[in-house]
Fold this protein.
Amino acid sequence: MKFRIPQCLLAIVLATPLAACNRPPPAPTEQRPEPQATALRDAIKDPLDKARSVQQTTDEAAQHEREAIDAATQ
């Protein structure tokens, strides 16, 4: 007498260990990752900061000039 295993039962038995393998949960993302391209960011940011500073100085000088003109014409 030979014992035959039904094919669907065999498939279930073989697939069960695969179903038990789950991916690990993703790492928590509460902390922002540290930027990697700091040199590039600084190379772009430094000239922009300098330009903003020069623009502020120019705007202040123009405001003082306008005030001087207004005071002289009154």
